[in-house]
Write a structure and sequence with these properties.
Length: 468
């Protein structure tokens, strides 16, 4: 009898390997490959049968299947409802992931409280990380005192299911899925086998009872969800909760959503009494000043499908060391270095031999190419000492040749700028035709087209704020 071979599996992505390796060949993670047991040899003769069985439900033409209307129930937290597509769907399983301390527990405790206040029934909040006394302290701080909000601290899956059967809740919150373990499955709590089994069982329970369920998951430093990727496939919606510990702004992004858009984003502000909804985040990402200053320029970035105004700030000063310094915050460093070179060539002003610092307001992280033109004008404004007028906004991607390239969702961007009172908007050439009346209306903003960075820099003196 042939000796069975031992197989190894990555705890991050689930990829298998015939031998142990220090780094997974699929996800490139270090130290995640572990032994999982003996694998059946291909020479043992065990093969799946090619004979089918009679299906219990026949396949039907798509034309016979009537379109079903998805009923949603609002949670009472408007921005949370917006990111999941308008409310919770019966049986929907939502995974909310984020770094420790970002506010996931506070957010879902607030959601549970708002949902319980609507009188639909009991809401069960089960924590495997904290005691009910610790949760109670947080609940009192944020004002979550609904009688229909039930708290429990459990780490065992069977006991958790017992709570569900006993109270028959209309909503369940599990904090967090990595802390729950099943006695019927080998492995430690938080391991790949345990997490996949726990998520699978909870998903089946939610769908069989047509009960929405919110799961909290931890994420790594690079904002990816900790644990096996199979967990994301087992749930209906995946949300990531992001934030910088040095700022109060929190972003809730939809990464996957079977019942709504998968690119929506909403904002919250961390406060002493919990998380506050930020309906208009544009005010957080730009400064409000009485007089314009050189080195600043406002643009519109798309966060998912939501246009948001953001301000780019630049400082160009004499270098104090033989090697000029470069400081970038909130933007891609290599992209900014490229834009510095393009701006220097098109403006014919020396920038590379000076200290250059570029940053965004309120710690906003901008990766949208449409902010390129704002970075270039901010650099030129700081270099020349000429401020851009406060009612001017620019949109456009800058190529290495200096050409201003068009960007997607331009109509939504211009509409958002017009709503907030910007009178002059600089856009790539050929954009007016797609803007309709926003580009040519008498009461709307004045839209100026540019096709090259030299044109935009040449108009900087016309866009400058003139002291009167």
């Amino acid at each position: 009898m042939a000796k069975p071979r031992v197989s190894f599996r990555c705890t991050e992505c689930g990829a298998t390997s015939p031998k142990w390796v220090g780094r997974c060949a699929e996800c490139q993670a270090w130290g995640t490959v572990a032994e999982v047991g003996a694998a059946a040899s291909s020479s043992s003769g065990l093969r799946s049968s090619t004979t089918g069985v009679a299906p219990t439900r026949r396949a039907r033409p798509v034309s016979e299947i009537a379109e079903q209307h998805v009923t949603r129930s609002g949670t009472g937290l408007g921005e949370f409802d917006r990111v999941i597509g308008g409310g919770l769907v019966p049986g929907q399983v939502v995974l909310v992931a984020g770094e420790p301390g970002v506010g996931k527990s506070t957010l879902l405790l607030e959601v549970g409280h708002r949902y319980a206040e609507q009188g639909r029934g009991a809401v069960l909040y089960v924590s495997g990380e904290e005691s009910v006394e610790q949760i109670g302290v947080r609940a009192r701080r944020i004002g979550a005192d609904s009688e229909a909000l039930l708290l429990a601290d459990e780490n065992d899956l069977a006991t958790l299911l017992g709570h569900i059967e006993e109270h028959d809740p209309v909503l369940v919150v599990v904090d967090s899925v990595q802390t729950i373990a099943s006695a019927d499955v080998d492995g430690r709590a938080g391991g790949m086998t345990q997490v996949v089994e726990i998520t699978s069982v909870l998903s089946r329970v939610a769908k069989s009872r047509r009960m929405p369920m919110l799961l909290i998951g931890q994420s790594t430093k690079d904002s990816s969800i900790a644990g096996p990727r199979a967990m994301e496939h087992l749930v209906d919606t995946v949300l990531t909760f992001e934030g910088d510990r040095h700022t109060s702004l929190r972003l809730l992004r939809a990464v996957k959503n079977r019942y709504g858009p998968a690119d929506e984003i909403v904002c919250f502000e961390q406060a002493d009494d919990g998380l506050r909804e930020v309906v208009d985040a544009s005010d957080l990402w730009r400064e409000h000043r009485e007089r314009p200053v050189p080195g600043t320029c406002v643009t519109v970035t798309m966060e998912g499908r939501r246009p948001m105004l953001a301000e780019v700030q630049s400082l160009v000063t004499e270098a104090t060391t033989p090697n000029p310094r470069r400081g970038v915050s909130g933007l891609d460093t290599s992209r900014v270095n490229m834009l510095v070179a393009v701006t220097e060539r098109c403006s014919r002003r020396r920038i590379s031999d000076r200290d250059v610092f570029v940053a965004t307001v309120a710690g906003a992280k901008l990766s949208d190419p449409a902010v390129d033109l704002a970075v270039c004008l901010a650099l030129a404004s700081a270099s020349m000492g000429t401020p851009v007028a406060p009612d001017v906004l620019v949109i456009g991607e800058v190529a290495l040749s200096g050409d201003i390239r068009p960007v997607p969702f331009l109509q939504q961007r211009v509409a958002e700028a017009a709503r907030l009172g910007y009178a002059r908007i600089v856009v790539p050439r050929g954009s007016k035709a797609s803007l309709g009346r926003l580009g040519s209306g008498v009461e709307g903003p004045r839209v100026t087209e540019v096709h090259h960075l030299e044109d935009a820099l040449g108009q900087l003196r016309h866009l400058a704020a003139v002291s009167r």
